[in-house]
Specification:
Layout (H helix, E strand, L loop, with lengths): L1 E9 L16 H13 L6 E2 L8 E11 L5 H9 L6 E9 L10 E10 L13 E2 L6 H7 L5 E4 L14 E12 L2 E8 L6 H13 L7 H8 L14 E8 L15
Parallel strand pairs: 3-10, 5-6
Antiparallel strand pairs: 1-3, 1-4, 2-3, 5-9, 5-10, 7-8, 8-9
Helix pairs in contact: 3-4
Amino acid sequence: MRRIRLTVAYDGTAYHGWQVQKNGETIESVLNRQLSALLKEQIQVIGASRTDAGVHALGNVAVFDTESRMPGERISYALNQWLPPDIRIQESAPVADTFHPRKAACTKFYEYQILNRDFELPQLRLYAHFFRRKLDVAKMQAACPYFLGEHDFKSFCSIHTQAESTVRTIYSLTVEEQEGLIKIRVSGSGFLYNMVRILAGTLIQVGLGERKPEEMRDILAACDRQAAGPTAPARGLTLVGMEYEGGFPAISPNPDCPK
């Protein structure tokens, strides 16, 4: 039995999120089905980030165990022939069987896009939240430092979360604008259910002048979902990638595995 790591990119528009659901197709269900067909055994992947319905990814990480003798580096090429065009494996490689993508320490990177202009751009309709009212980017930037470091982000978490702790650490948070496209970029040790989208919704209120940047301190201290802003739409959010501490644990080459 070998463990294989996948780096997965996908357009989440047509899917009910990452995790297998009874009521619709998901990224996980497609990968399970197509890997099982390709490798001719029952496969179940484990994903690092269980993104919500409509959320996109450039570099989600997943692993699965297999008896197959197909070289790990070649699985990406073979699997992409079986996948729909809105899901693509960017890399596949053997990894130590002790590696678990959700339990290993890592930094996750997200980006939220807001199209802030008078009219929509068709090319961005699935990948940015269109918002016509003018946003003050400078005010949004002024709110960012309040989130840095370790905080209890209960105010920025869905009430449906099952997390044991709502304490998380934010390493960086920036807001940039170019030609009406605002990009909120955030990195951290981990994120709660809907956390980035609630953070984006709150920063939009700051950009509208409905909240002052310094109010972020009080919102965090409240530990109350009602204290923060609305949950921004899923289509603006992309999981850019993740970096694991020390990289991925390698395994020794298997001389019985064909090159």
